[in-house]
Amino acid sequence: METPPPPPGAASTEVTDEEKTLALLAHLSGLVLALVGPLIIFLIKGQESRFVKYHCIQAAAWQFGSLVVVFTVLFVTCGLLFPIAFIPAIGSIWVGIQSYGGSWDGYPLLSGIGRPPPEV
Length: 120
Known about the structure:
Number of helices: 4
Number of domains: 1
Structural class: mainly alpha
Number of strands: 0
Distance between the termini: 29 Å
Strand content: under 5%
């Protein structure tokens, strides 16, 4: 027997498969499109889902911070530490996989950014 849907206007606490997929895409799109990927997903579905909104904000903040740090390190070392540019990708993949599992966990240094207030 299926669980009836919540009444109109009621917030659902369960994360849907679509929300999980969009959260994963927000994190992984940052690998290819930098800040543009999470921003596009945020503009499309961010107002409909707190879960997607949180993960889009997390992904955008991570990509911005990563770009600043990586470009600074590459500039200072004249590109000698080029392999460091791939380290943020590991974090994006890791948090993306966690978000696909329905987790609200974010990046370690950014876990408070974009977190919605607890529901009363």
